[in-house]
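User: Biotin carboxyl carrier protein of acetyl-CoA carboxylase, Candidatus Ghiorseimicrobium undicola:
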Amino acid sequence: MNLKEIKEMINLMNENDLTELEIEKEGLRVKLSKASASVSGQPAPVFIEKERLDSAARETERKEAAKTNVQEIKAPMVGTFYRAPSPEAPPFIEAGQTVEIGQVVCIIEAMKLMNEIKSEIRGKITEVLVENAEPVEFNQPMFLVEPI
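Assistant: Predicted structure for Biotin carboxyl carrier protein of acetyl-CoA carboxylase:
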């Protein structure tokens, strides 16, 4: 972010009578805040606070950008999500594994019935979004899949 962009943000604040503006761009967060108007009639000073985003925030941004070609396996019903057929069994699928169409990816317990949920997508599981034994809502994303 260069000085010209910061001056444009200050002008934007002044034109729209804003007292605070925060912008993130390319791993840099800039926060502008204006003190209350001074008695002398001079414009209030603008304070600039720059902060480098931590690696976790940059990783989140990278994941968001990568999600553009990723599809979701969503919960078809309300219930309790289980990753495995029993507590001692291994999970049906893990992040990094390939899932086939029709392959069971989890179980959702609804009204004391165990419902096997099958994938409608062939691809690589990039992320499991729900923890074991957590409740899920209808249409809630449970897995991210990168189609193959």
